[in-house]
Amino acid sequence: MKQATCAVVALTLAAASGLAHADADAPPNYVGVMGHYILTDSARDTDAGLGWQLLYGSPMGPHLSLELSVFGQRAALEAVDEYDYALGGGLDFRYLWGAPRLGAFLIGGLGSIWENFVNEEELSPFVNLGLGLQIGSDALQLRAESRYYAIFNGDTYPGKSVLYDARLGLGLMYAFGAAVDAGYDSDSDADGVPDQHDACARTPAGVGVDGSGCPLELDADYDGVADTLDACPLTVAGTLVDARGCPAAIPELPTDRAANDTITAAALYADADGDGIPDAEDACAQTPADASVDGRGCVVAPAAPTGFEAIPFEAGSSKLHRAARIRLDDVAAALKTHPDLRVEIIGYADAEAADNAHLAWRRAASVRQFLVDLGVDAQRLIQRSAQASAGPAAPGQVQLRPLSAAR
Asked: What confidence score (pLDDT) does residue 178 get?
């Protein structure tokens, strides 16, 4: 048993030496302190115990970490007023799902524990496996875990060579050098290079960068022309430049402008509503975003519709269901866009309806009233009915036919 324990200790120390050689791109190393509530093996004849743990972790990547820990515990014997004490150390692998701010993890490893019983001492190897959760910031997290330990205790307890203890732990972890309010993968200038690796953390938006986060081609005056091609590398910010990076020629000013008026390129080419027409030439300077405009900067109305989808009804019903109302919302929007357009509303009954004419009329009336309720002028809506077999619409529908401009 002592040889096995020494082998475990040697393996633990050898693996721990690798903590200093973790992946350079991994998250920062961390430390932790935890308290434990221990459910001991029944063979020990002790009450539940209390313990502590100190740990040092070194991430080997975004998810996998290696942890070196030391711990202590004590548990009261049930039969006498004495305690069993223990000190131990171990090496664990921890795999994190999620992120430091909120994640779950699987942890397991091996180690050695020194136990001081009432009449003797024993050094034993152990293995453990458990699950846990962590929540907090990138620098400080609350950690909770549950682990199951198998302690190879030799012949300390006759007929019981392996003891099984359960530990419930709660504590805090602190990551060295991590920002409290910034994620490990945060990228403040959105150039695709995380801040912790970004040598140029304030690169302007849209500028191509290399692996270190710095512009592929430097542009000291941010005029869009790389310094290697910029004939005027110190252009004042906001100045309109030509392909050489020098101030572009300003068009001749209107003749009615006073000779001593000064105008900058930025003001001359300002476009407040973003429609592509400079404010100086824009006859409609407050055009809605994404609207199509003509050469004067005014909205170009879309072409009038030449037809609408038929409005469906359930058999024997003149009630508008959801799909029909959605189609009529689009019809109302088109009619409001083209105020001179009229619509003929033709109702059709079911193929075998007993009151074809009456049902067809009620359906057309339902459509007409819904459009009126949406704000369409009733005088623009002409209601008609037809037999089920008449017209191009399928039975059980209402057809909407655009007409010429209202007279």
From this structure: 65
